[in-house]
Amino acid sequence: MIGSVVERKPSSNRPPAQGAFPAPNPSTGYPTVTHRSKTTRGASAFAKSRQVNPSRPQNVPTILSTISPSMKWESTEDDDDVSVQPNPPAPAPIPTDETERLLKEVGDENNQRISEMTEEERMAERADLLEKFGGGIGEMLRRRRLQREGKAADGNELVDMAAPTPRPATIQLSPPLTFSEDDMDVDSPGSTSTAGPSSAVERLEPSKTPPTRAQLLEDLNRPRSALRDSTAHSETSSTFRRLRFADVTPSDIHVYPSQPASPKSVHMLMAPPEDGSADGVPVTQLRFRSLHPERMTKHDGPAVWMAKEASPELSVPKASDDPEEGTPEDIRRRFFPNEAAAQPGLNWITAPSSEQPSDAARFDLQGALIPPALQSTLPTHLGLHHTASSLAGYTLDDLLYLSRSTNAAQRATVLSVLAKILQRLGSGNISTQAVGADARERILKSGMAALGERGSVGARAVEVVWEAVVGWDEFYVLQEGVELWVEEKRKVPSSNDEEEPPSTIPGLDALSSIPLEEALPLIQSYFTVPPSFPALTLSQLLGLLHRLATHYEAHASAIIKTPHFLSSVLSAWLAYKNSDFLRETAQDPKLIQLFSVLATSSRANAEALMVDLPNILLRFLAQMPDSSQSTEDRELRESLMAETLHFYATLGRYGLGCKVALTAQEFMPALVTYLDSSLSEGDITPSFARLAETFFQVREIWTICAIDPHKTSPPHELIWSQIEAFGWVDDLLHLAENIPAEQDTIWAGLWNATAAYTEGATINGANKGQEEKKKVMDGLQDIIQDGHGRSAIDSALEDLQSAIDQYDGLGKPKFLPCLRDIARPSTLLGAAVRLSLSLISSATSTSDPLGLPGASLSRLLDDLLSTTVPNDPLATTAPAGAYVHLRPLTTLLMDELRLSHRLGTMSMESWSVRALRILRHLLPGDEAHAEWILQNFSVGVKDLADSMDLTIDDSILHRGVLQDVMPFYMHAIRPDDKFCIAPFRPTPNSLSQATRVILPSLAALHKPPTSTLKAPVGLPLKRDFLFQPLSDLLRSSTSTAFDSFPASWDASETETVRATLFAVEMCQTLLLDMHPEEALKREEILFGCMRVVMLEHGQPQGDSSEDVFRDTVVAAEMKSLLEPFTIGASPTPPQSYSVPSSDVIPPLEAASKDYLGSGVPFYQFYTDLLALYEAISFADPIFGALLLPPLSMRYPPDYRKLFWGDHSVAVRTVRTSVEQVPADGVGEFLWPVEGDTELLSRYVKALGTGTVRGFLRTVALHHVACNIWLPPASPPASNSSASTPSTAGEGGETRRRHMLLALLRGNKREAVADVLKYEPAVGCEGVRMPGREERVAWVRGWGGEDVLQRLESA
What we know:
Blueprint: H1 45-52, H2 97-115, H3 119-133, H4 137-149, H5 198-204, H6 213-220, H7 328-335, H8 372-375, H9 396-402, H10 408-427, H11 432-435, H12 439-450, H13 455-469, E1 487-492, E2 503-508, H14 516-524, H15 535-551, H16 553-561, H17 565-575, H18 590-601, H19 603-609, H20 613-616, H21 618-622, H22 631-652, H23 659-664, H24 668-681, H25 686-707, H26 720-726, H27 728-735, H28 744-764, H29 770-785, H30 788-805, H31 815-838, H32 854-865, H33 887-903, H34 908-919, H35 927-939, H36 941-947, H37 954-958, H38 966-973, H39 988-993, H40 1002-1006, H41 1028-1034, H42 1053-1074, H43 1082-1093, H44 1112-1122, E3 1136-1137, H45 1147-1151, H46 1153-1156, H47 1162-1176, H48 1181-1186, H49 1197-1206, H50 1208-1213, H51 1227-1230, H52 1237-1249, H53 1254-1269, H54 1292-1305, H55 1309-1316, E4 1323-1324, H56 1332-1353
Parallel strand pairs: 3-4
Antiparallel strand pairs: 1-2
Helix pairs in contact: 9-10, 10-12, 10-13, 12-13, 13-15, 15-16, 15-18, 18-19, 18-22, 22-25, 25-28, 28-29, 28-31, 29-30, 30-31, 30-32, 31-33, 33-34, 34-35, 34-42, 35-38, 41-42, 42-44, 47-49, 49-52, 52-53, 52-54, 53-54, 53-55
């Protein structure tokens, strides 16, 4: 038995109560149901008590005070504690017959149970009770029993208060006190009076000599260390209260006023008087004065600290050596007198020094930066001081630390602040320098750590992650068509030396590194039925998934492969109702957009989504928008229908899901009717425009799938006869009548869908679809020539011209908007040109069927190719994904090129130049266009050469001119047949070939071929792609090009090189005449020729006549390619040279990077080239000329040291003249003056021995003469290296003399004479060569007449 809780054993002798089991109802066989309140057994104890004692008083008796006006303070074992006499025990409750019976029954059962227990069982139970409830449990139970029996009033049962045993106590209150309205004085406490035996009363009576106020204060304020263990009685009951008072004076109390002040606030604590009269007064003696005396009312309730003061007012004197009040030493002496001043536990009482504002950014609760000037002055009521710092605001480290708080409210608040910081960072309101470049990644990790939490913490975590992933670059929200991952430099700490700074290595960005496999189950937990989060949070999660799937293909695959993830999210999404959310929609179209993005990432993902999803989404096509609906509901239905159709179109790009076209045909007539009515009424909202675009898009895709049913998967799901039977073209022609001219995207969709039909009719229709084309022409002729269609075309031309004129360029704020402005009209113009091309009925037609402004369009596109628009989005510094806006532009260029080729509106040379310019700008997915250009170029190359008066060698002509190199070029366009990106406009062939729709990231295009992140695509082609056959021949052991060659290919190495060089020569001739800026540069031609001679590297050296570079045709073509770039070919050689910046990458190093990659430096390639020259060249002049460009002063001195020092054979055998050197001019080899001592000694030796000729002698003579005649401070600094001394350095004067004396000792009078009278052919800006008189004076000054005479004799 514990307290009043007892266990009852059912008595076997007691018969069951009557009515315990009611009799069954005859009609049902079951007892009648009766509420338990109507039965005696179910009545509550209170109801039974009222029934037994109906005369029980109903009113609560008044409780009177039992404390006398005086109170005695009695010291106890703790001198600072005050004991209070307990009240007399409360009277025992009046027992009733039922209560007595129950108590007697329980008591008998307990006694019987105890009597049946053995001694060991009793001791075990006793020990168990003592362990659970402590040693005072017996006393407590005894007193409870005495109270029940009414014996507490007996004096014999009174418990001595001084005893250490637990005892209950109550605080007795004095009678109600009265006080005036303007003050409230508290006097020293009086004594208390209680009922009890005389011995107990005597101890509580006041002494005959009452204590003075000073004694009382000394007794209350006796110091006691708070750092030591408490000596309070552990056995004391929790009901016995001990009051402890600290020595608090009015000066210790300060009220922080509210900012701004609340009109309803009442300041209960006031500042101390200025006269110091309240010093030393304890808190119990404080006098309160109200700010509003008229509002004061008399209290009926008593309070101990309100007792009237009876003793005179006393003050405690201070010792003269006491420290200043409030100082750390004062606090230690008063509260911790037994602790040493150096105790570490007392460091907290030391007053902190005023903290100065730091450079660390501090934020308020709105995520805004707090200016440093305000960090130390802001008030504390703003909630910005909850850190260890005294400065206002939170640093990013503080917030990241608090984001892991175990307090849910605090954690949610901090996450909200982090989200606002991210929003300001993404919008540019806060610079990344203020918080660090890795702030986004750090905050993202903090948000990811809180994903999956319940309540507001989980919602705020989603907000943080959304801001870091989606809101960071809002331009890419729902941006489809390209991956967005970039490469970032990541810090890697050094493993060897801790003091060494961390290095950086390239790696994926923060979004690509998100462990999505771990995050997806947490995201799935948000989608519950019924919803546990608001619609905004769920919408942010869908946007987050959409962004991650677009960002990196691996994320899309992870979403698809996570078991039950998409099915769970879709099930919950479909189950949501509008009533589940407050004024928010239940079905967010972002989920269907997510399905489309997942399908674009790979064919495998599209096949996984194709199983059940198309049929599930058909419900949204059946729910046609109604005019009776609200605008929000109608736009929601339009959006759901549009995204459903877009998803079907995405599947159709792979030739998948065509069967759903037959099922959806049931709803298409109603959809066409709705589109037609809305177009005719002019009620075109953004959601409706999107619906119309996707309708035409899916019609185009399904029509293409029906052109060749063998290309779909599975085949024959949709055939051409079904397209004709459905009358789809009639719907298109009918809708075209009501489309406004300003709806350019709708016009583009209509024309693309119509062009797909006419293209299919050409293949599947009778007589190449002449009847179908005539039908389309009749339906669209008036619209395109004079109606809204022509207005749309004219507006698109004007918009494109305006966008090109307003193009800002790379790095400008409007770069991306300008690209979008170019892409939009390009889409419409491309669709119009495509439709016109498909309507040409005869191969001999020379006129545009639709009468498009072809001449204006051709000039516009030619001007466009001359700008940087096609190149800027592909630069390494361009924003990720920006080049996706070039897809409509390249499609327009190709459509116009095909139309002009079909109609013959351009000459062969002009068309070829246009084709070559377009070829270099084609993007991944345009492989079919690139192959078409090369095939047409190869077919007409002989006629083109004849028109250019270009002679083709018989050996090349016999091999079909370009037939030997065409397989190399085709492989360069498609390096991997297993990786194929769907074109911007699908074709029947692309349906089965496409492995993905989305474009690879820009970073993947620029990765080296050896990188695993490199996209296996060939487009865009490199500038020197015409030399690709040479690269494959050099790497024939590892190149995969030969695996894709046809079995009939049998060209030799020499025949391949001949065809390659001829193709380069023809393209160079075309471009140099019309667009020289588009032609290959000198360095690209040089490196291509170097690859020709390097074909002999590593080959067994037998008969030298087998060397490819010695072939007469090859040699003639190499000479023809190099001749326009030689010094002699320049019409006006420059007379002065300006030294370029040393930061510029040497041209040949930049040109060779694509071929060599990042692992092989060009210096290594040049070393092998020099060794090969000495081994097999036999002083070949072309081979020798290729060695000279790296000797330019633009290149590091290592190249010159390698040539002049390690390869003396090359120095003696290279006899190339200055005019034959492939360079801009001789000035780049002469300036700045060489300052390397080793190289200068080589130059002096070469001049002294006379082993150099031609260009090399000119270079050596220049640097030797300039180092001798120019004063040390005259020559511009050489770009040799930081450690290489120049003539301006220490010892320059001595070196000048030694060089001149070395020449005199060489006995080469010709060399000495040339040095004495040397004048540079090309001067340098800021450098003046001394005249003859100055030179003679300098020699006489240090060498005297003897050296001067030796010079004159030489």
